[in-house]
Write a structure and sequence with these properties.
Elements lengths: L14 H9 L6 H17 L10 H13 L3 H13 L5 H13 L3 H14 L4 H14 L12 E2 L3 E5 L5 H7 L3 H7 L7 H13 L3 E8 L3 E11 L2 E8 L8 H17 L3 E7 L3 H9 L3 E8 L5 E6 L8 H15 L5 E5 L9 E5 L15
Parallel strand pairs: 5-6, 7-10
Antiparallel strand pairs: 1-2, 2-3, 3-4, 4-5, 6-8, 7-8, 9-10
Helix pairs in contact: 1-3, 3-4, 4-5, 5-6, 5-7, 6-7
């Protein structure tokens, strides 16, 4: 595991000093969590022998405990699997690793580990409960067909977002600008998040995924709404992982899935006019401006369009396509009118939300 993030924290030299520094901490906040994840990887790069040395069994136990405490699932799995292989992990330690594997998207490995634990401990109710949860998850029928349990490219994995991902989501979503820029809710409780996810999954045309990095775990989310062969897409990446190309990489992975499994012909995205970073990211993905402005009482947005093959719809065709998309997506916040320009060369249209609706987006209630 390589430390790819820029950390503000210089770890003490050696495992004992590093672990002692954090084990005595009464609270590890979001910023400190990233610092600790980085420091642990830096130390592992310096001393990979901790994974194998017989004398390091106590250190491995402490690393596993600390990584699980901060939901560093990728590191917990690496250390935990070594401990299981060396018969150092007790039953609860092994179940913790099964849960980490499941949350990280390794369903088959999590299922196999729980089965093995139950064969050795037939009355292990906790292992049985986790096994049943994994089976129930694998049997979910999603709104849009999934050709596999997850979709990956070797570095990033897209997995449908589930209730067992709540802690992973919370760690990444802590930055308030994510909710603002993506027109997502601010969650004041776990129940609010669970209700939001249920509503998202309740639409028969939308899929919301967690983005999992092989070494860093949950780093953001991507979502796609399909209206026939037209897609509508948004994504966000946690602040600590921005600027490294993960957003465009996750989006390209989603587009590949949408083309292959859902027959997507083209895709739309909207962006605030002052969000230059997102505009650059959309351009890198091949999105082009439509000239359609989404007007609101407070903020203005532009509509962008992407297609895998070059196509040149006329202004009238483009306007009709976008209008149809939003009308079929609509619920409480819908397109009221589409003002087609009298001079087609300007290629500009304006969408206007109804009075009393959310002024910041054209979307379903509480949905992008």
């Amino acid at each position: 595991m390589s430390a790819v993030l820029n950390s503000r924290f210089s770890p003490p030299q050696g495992w004992h000093a590093l672990l002692a520094h954090w084990e005595t901490s009464s609270c590890i906040g979001p910023e400190q969590r990233i610092d600790l994840m980085t420091a642990l990887r830096q130390q592992l790069d310096l001393d990979p022998g901790v994974l194998h040395s017989p004398e390091a069994s106590d250190l491995r136990a402490r690393i596993q405990w600390l990584s699980l405490a901060i939901d560093d699932l990728a590191l917990a799995i690496v250390i935990g699997e070594r401990r299981i292989a060396r018969n150092e992990a007790d039953l609860n330690d092994a179940i913790d690793i099964a849960i980490a594997l499941w949350r990280h998207g390794h369903h088959g490995d999590a299922f196999a580990l729980c089965r093995r634990l139950l064969l050795l401990n037939p009355h292990a109710e906790r292992a049985l409960s986790v096994l049943q949860d994994i089976l129930a998850w694998d049997r979910i029928v999603w709104p849009l067909p999934m050709p596999a349990a997850a979709w990956c490219d070797g570095t990033l994995t897209l997995e449908p977002l589930g209730h067992h991902h709540i802690d992973d989501f919370a760690h990444a979503y802590i930055d308030p600008t994510i909710a603002e820029r993506c027109c997502l809710p601010h969650f004041d409780s776990n129940r609010e998040w669970d209700d939001w996810l249920d509503r998202s999954n309740g639409f028969n045309d939308q899929m919301t995924f967690g983005v999992w990095h092989a070494d860093w775990g949950f780093i953001g989310s991507v979502s796609m709404v399909m209206v026939g062969d037209i897609g509508f897409f948004y994504y966000w990446i946690a602040r600590a992982f921005q600027g490294q190309g993960f957003g465009p990489q996750a989006a390209a992975l989603l587009f590949d899935l949408a083309e292959q499994a859902w027959g997507m012909r083209c895709c739309y995205a909207k962006v605030f006019t002052d969000n230059t970073a997102s505009i650059r990211a959309l351009s890198k993905l091949g999105f082009t401006p439509t000239g359609i402005a989404i007007r609101s009482d407070q903020r203005d947005e532009w509509l962008y369009r992407w297609s895998p093959a070059p196509d040149r719809p006329t202004p009238a065709e483009l306007s009709a396509e976008a209008h149809r998309l939003f009308e079929r997506m609509g619920s409480t916040t819908r397109v009221l009118s589409l003002i087609v320009p009298s001079r087609p060369t300007t290629h500009t249209a304006t969408y206007v939300a109804r009075p009393g609706d959310d002024p910041n987006a054209i979307r379903r209630k509480d949905q992008p």
